């Protein structure tokens, strides 16, 4: 195949976009429909390889039967005479963008964007799994990020129906890419959709940290690590992210989430944010808040106010300004302000908290109760010592309304 060639009288080859183990991908034009396409052509050296041809045909049939905005659409499959044999080709939508693997070479992306891409991969996997297909080669090279910032899953060449899926080829070789292979893929036992979720866990770890959970120089080393080693725990501001990644990387398939749909819902609930090496964890911050409360309860409300005033900006930065842990600590501060002779400042802070806690009805009711109590006290005795403390000042800016999580 060469630039300018008209493939099968319909597809004008224009530029080589990349080479894979089995085929070459071309940017081309469908001259019949006047639209840009990508054409994958099976390499000549594999044209006589029955297993390679079967894989190529399987990709056409599998991906061609899936319809999802986050799965690259297959338009056509064909074969033409080429020398003594045949050239097999696959026509797909042309994704203008680059592979996630290329993005990751520049380091971990903005986490909110990375989590969005992982949610979109989940949508693609959910669509495939619901039709009975397991991809078996989920990795950053097989996720394209288009120019609009959307993730699309490609290459269903080694996909299998869930009822047929095993971890080995007919020749006994392991199927897939070793840094992303679930433990069960190494043993030749039945492999189902949870192997895709394990690979997703490896990729999620990589997107959040800029590195894989396991690093090795050889396939046997990777096999040992996947089968035996516990991956490091991700240091995130939301414990839910670390818990999800740990669940996805569970050694036993039964200990992983049950479906891509479940992973999607858990990802939607995660608040973005990673800890720097010197950052305290949310749990450590919570312990500091408990210590401040205890100082107030022991008769030192001024110390409690001082401790909480320096703690709340850290909570806002690490956990998020609208995180319930941050807002509960602001409530603590208001109570100790009132006890320290500044009920007017406490009332002003409690009024702001009632608005901020609109999505937390139980916490909001507690704040409203204390607001009523201290408002009556201010009416009776006066506001006390003024304190220039506002919610936006403590949190480093106004509360966000929260982004929609697709």
In short:
The chain is α+β, with helices and mostly antiparallel strands and about 400 residues long. It has 13 helices and 11 strands. The chain has a 6-stranded antiparallel sheet with strand order 1-2-3-4-6-5, covered by helices on one side. Strands 7-9-10 form a 3-stranded antiparallel sheet.
What does this entry look like structurally?
- This protein has 13 helices and 11 strands.
- The protein has 406 residues and is α+β, with helices and mostly antiparallel strands.
- A 6-stranded antiparallel sheet has the order 1-2-3-4-6-5, covered by helices on one side. Strands 7-9-10 form a 3-stranded antiparallel sheet.
- The two termini are 41 Å apart.
- About 2% of the residues have low confidence.
CATH topology of the largest domain: Transferase(Phosphotransferase), domain 1
Q: What is the H level of CATH, i.e. the homologous superfamily of the largest domain?
A: Transferase(Phosphotransferase) domain 1
Separation, N- and C-terminal Cα atoms: 41 Å
Query: What Rg do the Cα atoms give?
Result: 28 Å
**Beta strands, count:** 11
CATH class of the largest domain: Mainly Alpha
Shape estimate: elongated
Q: Largest sheet, if any?
A: 6 strands, antiparallel
The class by helix and strand makeup works out as: alpha+beta
**How many H/I helices?**
13
């Amino acid at each position: 195949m060469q630039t300018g060639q008209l493939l099968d009288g319909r597809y004008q080859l224009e530029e080589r976009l990349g080479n894979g183990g089995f085929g070459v991908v071309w940017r081309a034009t469908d001259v019949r429909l006047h639209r840009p396409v990508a054409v994958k052509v099976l390499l000549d050296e594999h044209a006589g390889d029955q297993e390679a041809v079967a894989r190529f045909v399987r990709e056409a049939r599998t991906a061609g039967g899936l319809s999802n905005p986050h799965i690259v659409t297959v338009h056509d499959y064909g074969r033409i005479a080429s020398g003594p044999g045949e050239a097999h080709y696959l026509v797909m939508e042309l994704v203008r963008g680059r592979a996630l693997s290329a993005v990751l070479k520049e380091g971990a992306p903005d986490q909110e964007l990375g989590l969005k891409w992982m949610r979109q991969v989940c949508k693609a996997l959910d669509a495939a799994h619901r039709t009975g297909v397991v991809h078996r080669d989920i990795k950053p090279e097989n996720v394209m990020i288009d120019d609009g910032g959307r993730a699309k899953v490609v290459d269903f060449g080694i996909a299998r129906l869930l009822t047929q899926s095993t971890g080995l080829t007919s020749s006994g070789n392991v199927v897939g890419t070793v840094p992303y292979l679930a433990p069960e893929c190494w043993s030749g036992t039945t492999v189902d959709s949870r192997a895709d979720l394990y690979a997703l866990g490896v990729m999620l770890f990589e997107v959040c940290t800029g590195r894989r959970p396991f690093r090795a120089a050889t396939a046997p080393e990777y096999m040992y690590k996947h089968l035996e080693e516990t991956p490091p725990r991700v240091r995130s501001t939301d414990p839910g992210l670390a818990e999800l990644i740990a669940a996805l990387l569970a050694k036993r398939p039964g200990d992983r989430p049950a479906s891509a749909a479940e992973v999607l819902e858990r990802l939607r609930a995660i608040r973005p944010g990673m800890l720097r090496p010197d950052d305290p964890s949310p749990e450590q911050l919570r312990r500091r808040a408990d210590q401040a409360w205890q100082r107030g309860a022991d008769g030192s409300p001024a110390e409690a106010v001082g401790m909480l005033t320096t703690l709340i900006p850290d909570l806002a930065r690490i956990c998020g300004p609208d995180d319930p842990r941050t807002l509960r600590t602001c409530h603590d501060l208001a109570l100790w302000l009132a006890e320290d002779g500044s009920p007017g400042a406490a009332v002003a802070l409690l009024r702001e908290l009632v608005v901020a806690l609109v999505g937390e009805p139980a916490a909001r009711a507690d704040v409203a109760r204390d607001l009523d109590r201290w408002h009556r006290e201010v009416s009776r005795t006066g506001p006390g010592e003024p304190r220039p403390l506002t919610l936006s000042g403590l949190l480093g800016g106004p509360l966000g309304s929260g982004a929609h999580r697709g």
